[in-house]
Specification:
The protein has 188 residues and is an all-alpha fold. Helix content is 72%, strand content 2%. The longest helix has 36 residues.
Length: 188
């Protein structure tokens, strides 16, 4: 992997240092939190923590909501397939039941995803109730997801090394390109 070195996130282009959990509880908490993408999820968890609500309560609500919506969509899609099943014999309209089968499958996939998210949210809430999730840990996760580096001196040094290496490679590539262009010009 990255072995503790700063790396560039391929999604948003920010430089990040691998997140370092301080103990086994933080490893478990992070694995539960990773089911919820983006900075907003961590901000919600911080708001819950600061309000005295157990972390994960909002995650449970939204995971249940989206699981129910996915189940309703799957039920509607497969009900429509049953109604339109005779259209499979029609050459011009056979695509219609197939489209709803695909829609039902995607809805079931979303249902499975949100059920797993619900499980992670319940574990997170139980973890906060039993051991407690610190606001400092959530802040560290938030800074990590934003791409901010908390160990700025070491990180800045590593970023500077990476950037200087990239600039050196660009100079070498540019010099090599100029040399090959010059050699091609002499050959003619």
């Amino acid at each position: 992997m990255h072995e503790g070195k700063v790396f560039k996130d391929p999604v948003d282009g920010t430089y990040k240092e691998p997140f370092k959990p301080r103990d086994g509880h933080e490893v478990y908490q992070r694995s539960c939190i990773d089911h919820f993408a983006g900075e907003r999820a961590i901000q919600v968890a911080l708001q819950e923590k600061n309000s005295g609500i157990l972390v994960g309560t909002a995650f449970i609500f939204w995971a249940r909501f989206y699981a129910v919506v996915s189940l309703i969509c799957a039920t509607i899609c497969y009900s429509i397939v049953v109604v339109f099943f005779p259209l499979l014999n029609s050459p011009s309209l056979s695509w219609l039941p197939s489209l709803f089968v695909i829609g039902g499958g995607v809805s079931l996939l979303f249902l499975a995803y949100h059920c797993l998210s619900l499980s992670a949210a319940m574990k997170l809430k139980r973890q906060d109730k039993d051991q407690g999730i610190s606001a400092e840990f959530l802040e560290r996760i938030l800074h990590y997801r934003k791409g901010s580096l908390s160990t700025s001196d070491r990180a800045k040094q590593q970023i500077a090394e990476v950037l200087s290496s990239l600039q050196a490679l660009k100079r070498r590539a540019g010099a090599g390109h100029r040399l090959s262009a010059q050699s091609q010009g002499k050959d003619e």
